[in-house]
Amino acid sequence: MSIKPAMVLAAGRGTRMRHLTDDKPKPLVQIGGTSLLTHILQKIKKQDIKNVVINTCYKSDMIKKEALKQKDLLLFFSDEETALETGGGVKNALPTLLSLGGENGFFVLNADPLWTEPKKPLLEQLETAWNPETMDILLAIVPIQQAYGDVPDGNYFIENGHLRRKKENEHNIPYLFMGIQIIHPRIFDQPLPEVFSLRDLYDQAQENGRLAHILFDGNWFHVGTPEAVAETEKMFIMGNDK
To answer: Which of 32, 36, 94, 168 is most buried when burial is the number of CB atoms within 10 A of its CB?
Structure first.
């Protein structure tokens, strides 16, 4: 099934970037002379997606100026007076995503991860695996040993072919969510707060047997701190983004 729109989550402040985000938002931090936001938008273009929604909050004018350099994308901005977190941000942009053909699902991507492409690009893998009849959410998951930069603790196990989010006090979690996914809009057809995390919807989909995943076979870079910028510069750029 062809996924028509994508949403990029670009409203965060990026406080852990310290001085790097004093004068610009985190998605404009550069890797190899190119902003994180542009890296993400170029990945989306390679999937032949034209309609992209970007949510903004901190220094939103700078986000818009950078995004609008991509002349072959139709860009729509979802402005937030105060950051609504990931779930609230998507909920706020949902009418636009539906108007762009997202009734059977849409991509949602964080603005700060990078990844090297295996033979079959990640977004293509997700689109191929997507089945709205059996899934509400499809997550891209990577083994923790293939994660670089500012690597958080793992957050998922794979048990009998299904995802299970870690419980409190569990350690050595083998898999990480990459910040890239396909979501069906029906998961929002319920009372939800204005500000909330998409993680709440992942847990609900898991409980209902409608949380699916693909296991990524490339390298993933989480650019969350100045130190991660330096590591990613070395490994992502020198290794070439293939």
So the answer is: 36
